[in-house]
TrEMBL record:
Its EC number is 4.1.1.23. Pathway: Pyrimidine metabolism; UMP biosynthesis via de novo pathway; UMP from orotate: step 2/2. This is Orotidine 5'-phosphate decarboxylase. Pfam families: OMPdecase (PF00215). Residues 19-265 form the Orotidine 5'-phosphate decarboxylase domain. The active site is at K98 (proton donor). PANTHER family: OROTIDINE 5'-PHOSPHATE DECARBOXYLASE (PTHR43375). It catalyses: orotidine 5'-phosphate + H(+) = UMP + CO2. Belongs to the OMP decarboxylase family. Type 2 subfamily. GO terms for biological process: 'de novo' pyrimidine nucleobase biosynthetic process; 'de novo' UMP biosynthetic process. It comes from Streptomyces griseoruber. Keywords: Decarboxylase, Lyase, Pyrimidine biosynthesis. InterPro entries: Aldolase_TIM (IPR013785), OMPdecase_AS (IPR018089), OMPdecase_type-2 (IPR011995), OMPdeCOase_dom (IPR001754), RibuloseP-bd_barrel (IPR011060).
Length: 280
């Protein structure tokens, strides 16, 4: 049975739980900080603890696939388990894999994460459009077919991104704005929210020169350790603030391995975001 579209499920989860997205990023330094070994057992303990702490209370969990893949097949097996347990607890899962390719290869990536019968099936997948937005067509089609979504890199917070995303096309529009325009077209007429979102960094400051009203969600990394705060979000996103999914990773994860401390950290960010939304 096909799921309800991701955008509708995300809108409901954000309204019920708040819009916070917590990353599951088991990189080496965090494993060490938690007193865990940098091995599969440490990886499993880390991811299981994060899921236990917050999957029942936040709207979205975002595992970073690379930190699992580096351990080979056993790491991928741990990722599969984390995805399944997070979704069973009621969180939506955005797989942060940033896949991007062409033709049958893009289709295979899509089948890995967006087909309802795939072991790694996730509610949404991050993808890169920089082989041309049309290269994402297999992922767009499969996401629609299975009630899943995409988050497409549009205006990222890393300094290197500007050389591509701010490059100006012959029509005078830059590449980032072009990606946003494609997503607006994907989401046209969808209610209450489209399923095709953009990744837009929370650290970018005033983006009023861009049309962020894509009728879809805006995944906003950068809150917490990267320097942005919930109070910064209105200045970045303006009138589309209600569609923003702020992502916090290290700002929550550094409080592990204690489950209560992780939960309290997530709750603090969620409360700050709620206050910001209510006052904007």
């Amino acid at each position: 049975m096909t799921l309800e579209p991701f955008g509708a499920r995300l809108r409901r989860a954000m309204d019920e739980r708040g819009p916070l997205c917590v990353g599951i990023d088991p990189h080496r330094s965090l494993l060490v900080e938690w007193g865990l070994n940098d091995d599969v057992a440490g990886l499993e303990r880390f991811s299981r603890t994060v899921v236990e702490a917050v999957a029942g209370r936040v709207a979205v969990l975002k595992p970073q696939s690379a930190f699992f893949e580096r351990f080979g097949s056993r790491g991928v097996a741990a990722l599969e388990k984390s995805v399944q347990e997070a979704r069973a607890a009621g969180a939506l899962v955005v797989m942060d894999a940033k896949r991007g390719d062409i033709g049958s290869t893009m289709a295979a990536y899509a089948e890995s994460f967006l087909h309802k019968d795939a072991p790694l099936f996730s509610d949404a997948l991050t993808v890169s459009p920089y082989l041309g937005y049309g290269s994402l067509s297999p992922a767009v089609a499969l996401a629609r077919e299975n009630g899943a979504g995409l988050f497409v890199l549009a205006l990222t917070s890393n300094p290197e991104g500007g050389e591509v995303q701010h490059a100006v096309r012959a029509d005078g529009r830059d590449v980032g704005a072009t990606v946003l325009a494609h997503l607006t077209a994907e989401n046209a007429g969808e209610e209450p929210l489209g399923s095709f979102g953009a990744v837009v960094g929370a650290t970018l400051g005033d983006l009023s020169s861009y049309d962020l009203d894509i009728n879809g969600p805006l995944l906003a990394p950068g809150v917490g350790a990267q320097g942005a705060t919930p109070a910064d979000l209105p200045g970045v996103f303006g009138s589309v603030l209600r569609n923003v999914v702020p992502n916090v990773s290290r700002g929550v994860l550094r409080h592990g391995p204690d489950v209560t401390a992780l939960r309290d950290a997530a709750d603090r960010f969620a409360d700050e975001i709620r206050v910001t939304l209510e006052s904007s």
